Amino acid sequence: MKIYQQTIQLRERRRGFHLITNEVVHALPEIAGIQTGICQVFIQHTSASLTINENADPTVRQDFEMYFNKVVPENDPDYRHDDEGPDDMPAHLKAAMLGSSVTIPIAGGRLALGMWQGIYLCEHRNYGGGRKLVVTAWGV
């Protein structure tokens, strides 16, 4: 069994849903040496998240942002945690809904994503800054 791990720093991105599949793949080139295995991508933040979805049509990512803003609005007077502004608590809630990691099979030295699948960084803050990911791959 081979185990590889790399922490990567993503550049700052605007609020929204962003494809980061290529950045993940380039961060851990050792994946190419794994025939059968697993890759886990974990985000070390509580106001951004990760998910897997449509990688071709950018309107899907725009619709994700629209939907989550409707479901978890800013400036809700019931929020108690607002130390960092009106996008703070909604960002934590959105991150809890989507999750902090994704797990992808590795087959033949490649991530076994479907044809139309990509890894999204879900940036829920207006000014979230750069985000750190821990990418771990293991297999034979």
From TrEMBL:
This is YjbQ family protein. The lineage of its organism: Bacteria, Pseudomonadati, Bacteroidota, Sphingobacteriia, Sphingobacteriales. It comes from Mucilaginibacter mali. InterPro entries: UPF0047_YjbQ-like, YjbQ-like_sf. Belongs to the UPF0047 family. It comes from the Bacteria.
